[in-house]
């Protein structure tokens, strides 16, 4: 496999918060076009890994590569400009602004550095058309002028996803896109994730196993800041160590058992 066949990768990544080791020597690669799900008990380090990849956290050690290019030293906005998109576990939109206004803000990474900052994102010529295109993709074309606050939780999730899609990133990190979405909207939000993953590489953190099994090509299991195992959804589901990791809880299970099992 050439380096460009890997969309995003990290090697030897460690992250510490004071004395606490949140990630320990994590290596991961996601093939171009693949949807890889990252699962593991609470506190395993999944969000921390997304933060390490997207540049929100300083690494204590290790390297990150995007499409064959070392981006370890690049700040968040540069990574975004290079094609790395991100959505958040906690919905990160402006509730009082309309769907269209929110989506326009998602174009920021495309505009950043291309024109003087005082002209702002509103002056970008393709903005309106792109916002409408994305709204249609995420099923919000009927809600463009509504304030985000009046939408259901599932549709607010769609706005959040839409923001990340405005720059059409080839590589997308999704942090629990179903968090807080009620049972009635799980199907629609899952269908949206399936649509969004077409023609791009996705690294998805998700607790809903049915959804993981449905959308992921492969699954990586994390525990206590390390990678426990990786395999197809079926392989991971059948893995006794994975069941033990979940039953044992986040940081109560010794990492050594997993590593040497
Ligand atoms: N900024 C921080 N300062 C101190 N500790 C942190 C910080 N961020 C995360 N942690 C700790 O690092 C560990 C990993 O957290 P992380 O959020 O990455 O876990 P997670 O696998 O995403 O869990 P969840 O499934 O609950 O979202 C946890 O013990 C958490 O308390």
From TrEMBL:
The keyword Transport applies. PROSITE patterns: ABC_TRANSPORTER_2 (PS50893). Keywords: ATP-binding, Cell membrane, Membrane, Nucleotide-binding, Transport. GO terms for molecular function: ATP binding; ATP hydrolysis activity. The keyword Membrane applies. One of its GO terms (cellular component) is plasma membrane. SMART domains: AAA (SM00382). It holds the Pfam family BCA_ABC_TP_C. SUPFAM superfamilies: P-loop containing nucleoside triphosphate hydrolases. Residues 8-249 form the ABC transporter domain. It comes from the Bacteria. PANTHER family: ABC TRANSPORTER ATP-BINDING PROTEIN (PTHR45772:SF3), CONSERVED COMPONENT OF ABC TRANSPORTER FOR NATURAL AMINO ACIDS-RELATED (PTHR45772). This is Branched-chain amino acid transport system ATP-binding protein. It comes from Pseudorhodoferax soli.
